[in-house]
């Protein structure tokens, strides 16, 4: 039976990360989860830890989902803050345009696919 919730593990892991603890302490944290029989929670713990990290640091994880590679990335730089972590994800199904996801919470959908889907519904 699990001893701790995923949120509890995530809070503890975020403290280790934010305080820039050593790899030894992070490995010890993984050993602790393993000993408690909670390895199956690892994916959820990482997602929750990521959310805590971005909230506490004020940084943003931005995923740009686009139909094809952007050659002139500097045209988007005014929309980002210093410290933002920007990832590009290619999704040809979008046809054209883009989707913007911030911290896995907010999403703006400016894709042609969504406009076409809205016309059909």
Q: Describe it for me?
A:
This protein has helices spanning 6-18, 23-35, 42-57, 112-120; strands at residues 61-66, 85-90, 97-102, 106-111. It has 121 residues and is α+β, with helices and mostly antiparallel strands. The chain folds into two domains: 6-57, no CATH class; 61-120, no CATH class. A hairpin with a 3-residue loop joins strand 3 (97-102) and strand 4 (106-111). Helix 1 (6-18) packs antiparallel against helix 2 (23-35) and helix 1 crosses helix 3 (42-57). The longest helix has 16 residues, at 42-57. The termini are far apart. The model has no long low-confidence stretch (mean pLDDT 85).
Specify Rg, calculated over alpha carbons.
19 Å
Largest sheet: 4 strands, mixed
Count of DSSP-assigned helices: 4
End-to-end CA span: 46 Å
What spatial form do the alpha-carbon principal axes imply? elongated
- Which structural class do the helices and strands define? alpha+beta
Task: Tell me the fraction of residues in β-strands, as a range.
Answer: 15-25%
Integer tally of domains: 2
Topology (elements, then pairings):
Layout: H1 6-18, H2 23-35, H3 42-57, E1 61-66, E2 85-90, E3 97-102, E4 106-111, H4 112-120
Parallel strand pairs: 1-2
Antiparallel strand pairs: 1-3, 3-4
């Amino acid at each position: 039976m699990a001893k701790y919730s995923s949120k509890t593990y995530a809070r503890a892991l975020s403290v280790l990360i934010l305080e820039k603890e050593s790899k030894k302490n992070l490995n010890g944290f993984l050993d602790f989860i393993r000993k408690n029989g909670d390895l199956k929670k690892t994916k959820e713990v990482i997602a929750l830890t990521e959310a805590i990290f971005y909230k506490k640091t004020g940084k943003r994880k931005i995923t740009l989902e686009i139909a094809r590679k952007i050659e002139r990335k500097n045209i988007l730089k005014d929309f980002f803050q210093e410290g933002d972590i920007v990832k590009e994800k290619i999704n040809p199904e979008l046809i054209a345009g883009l989707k913007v996801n911030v911290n896995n919470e907010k999403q703006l959908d400016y894709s042609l696919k969504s406009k076409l889907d809205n016309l059909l519904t």
